[in-house]
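ok so for the tutorial part 2 we go from a plain amino acid sequence to predicted structure tokens. step 1 is just haveing the sequence, like this:
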Amino acid sequence: MSILLAPYRRYFEFSGRSRRKEYWLYILTFYVLMFVLVFVDSALGLGGTTETALDTTDGLRASANAEGGVLTAIWGIGNIIPLIACAVRRLHDTDRSGWWVLISLIPLIGSIWLLVLMCLDGTQGSNRFGPDPKDRLGRSAEAVFE
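step 2 — the prediction. this is what the tokens look like for a chain of 146 residues:
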């Protein structure tokens, strides 16, 4: 449970490193709660709409539309800083500058490249951004094998 709360404990922390596990669990939690809040907004009449249509009279056609409301907007706006901070720390774990987040501004290719960077394993041992977050004993990788 503590790994799910780590991005919120480090809300404005853009330094240091974050493991893949921390980053991807945070992203999963963010989108699952966003999905749930869309339906809660719709059920409470807070501006959200959800519609699904399935027409099988002349072939199979399906469509879905979901728009968030007040709760979804509050959740999204409240998570902008932690999303960026966690992404920057994840890039630091791969020994890249946090400015690489801006590559996502390049249509299609930038987002795909950022996804690849987020999936890469972090550098073993300390790097210029701090100690290895996987090292539970606080030792560098070089010291372990000496």
